Each structure stands twice: as C-alpha cells, then as structure tokens.
Amino acid sequence: MLYYASSLNDYQLKASDGELGKVKELFFDDKQWVLRYFGVDTRKWLPGKKVLLSPRSFQTIDDENRTIELSSDKETVRNSPSLDEGSPLSREYEMTLTRYYGWAPYWTGGLLWGRQDVPLVGAITNSDQARDLPENREETLAEELTHNLRNLDDLTDKFTVHASDGKIGTIDDVLLDGENWKLRYLVVKNGQGFSWEYSLLSPDWTQSVDWVDYNLYLDVTQEAVKNGPGISEKKEITRETEQELHTSYGKKTYWTY
After folding, report:
1. Do 149 and 129 contact (CB within 8 A), yes or no?
2. Which helix (H) or strand (E) holds 244?
3. What are 125-139's pLDDT values in tens digits?
4. How far, in Å, are 14, 140, 158, 230 from residue 119 at the CA level?
C-alpha cells in the first residue's frame, strides 16, 4: 500500500501498554530514499525529548483506525537514548539507538534494510542479543560520507523539481511504500502549462540534488511530464496507474528489478 506522507501525521502510535502520541516527523536517508524513523509527538508525557522509532518496531498498522501498534512498551521508549528537541541526528546517535532496541543496522548488508529489503518487524528486547550486534565503526564512518538523515518536511516545504530541460514544479507530498518504507513517488505540484495539478515522479530518477538551494533534477524531459499521466487530486494509487506511469516515462517498474 502507498501512503501519502501527509496522511501519516494523523496516525496514533501505540506501545504495547498504551498510547505514545501521534506521528510528528518523518526522517529518510538521502542515498536510498527510504524512511528510517518516525518522530513521535510525546509532549504530554515526555516533554522536551525527541522520540524516534524505526519501522522495525512496528507490529501492525490499522489503517481504518489510523493507529500503528508497536512491539515496545512505554517504559522502554521512556528510557531510550535521549535526544533533545532541535539536536541533529548523528550516526553515533543512530548506532546508540539501534543497539538499545536491538534493531539490525540498516546500513550494513547492501539491501534497503541491511540484509533484507523490508524491515524485520519487532524489536529484539533481550539486552544480551542487543549487545551482540556488530559495531563496525569503520564501515559506519564510510557510510556517513555517502548519506544523511533528512526531515521529510525539507522536501515537501522547500524543493523545486526540474526536468532535464526545464522546471516542473514544487514537491507537495511524497508517496511511501508501506511494505519497505521506500519513497516511491514525489507528488509534484505542477507549474503553468501542465494538464494535471500533480505529477508523480520517482526520486530514483534523480540526476542530482542541491540540498543547499533546494533544487532536484530528474532524468525526464519537461515534454514527457506534460504528456504523461498525472492526478488532479490526492487519491489512492493503483498498480495499474503505476504501470502506466512507468511505461509513459520509459522507466522500468520497481517490482521487476
């Protein structure tokens, strides 16, 4: 299932013994374009503390009631490594958080989630198992050179998208794959001269990104986007729509890789 990132802000995160709060922030890595952490609004019971949870800690997602059930209890979350509001997400903090929960590191193994393409649901709560997880600092430092964690709001609030031969529009939202949390499509609000209000464009088609001036350049032509399929409102995207989209742009579908 594909989720609009904006819709996830309405989801309630529930520990095994009670509510934690609603989704507040979403953080992705800018190398593989995968959502890595959900930031939780916990002001009612943990004021001033940034709480991050990986999709590895999700047990079930109830779309009807807009809730995400977690494997951890509230006390485990309360005692998680501290990160003050406004503090940057460093790789050192990521390693500390990963080892605390016993999550398998996603940055080792070469696939989207380390040695798997989907996050293994459920945290390892046994502390001995968590301590036994490998800590390869040299590999960590090498990876730090090639990707950063970024707030998804930085994309949807600021970025202009360009074709290889001209401007397309601005990023209004993102479509996320609920199976592996890959950023599948940028929902681009088109500029003048386009038939549709929104175009769906894959971040995997990116040629370059200017993270300073907030410009993203894609390997598509402006004419292809104008003639390609689009949407006039944010609605559910079917596999047939995705197939049409990729065919129109002459791009291979991700499910046939």
Report:
1. no
2. helix 239-249
3. 433 444 444 555 545
4. 19, 19, 29, 30
Residue 226's φ and ψ, nearest 5 degrees, are -65, -35
Backbone phi and psi for residue 43, each to the nearest 5 degrees, phi listed first: -60, -30
Take residue 229 and report the two structure tokens written for it.
Answer: 């399929």
The pTM is what? 0.88
CB-CB contact of 104 with 136 (8 Å): no
pLDDT at 47 over 70: yes
Spatial neighbors of 33 by CB under 8 A, at least 6 apart, are 182, 183, 203, 204
Identify the structural domains of the chain with CATH numbers, from first to last: 6-151 (3.90.50.10), 159-256 (3.90.50.10)
pLDDT recorded at residue 136: 53
DSSP assignment, residue 48? T
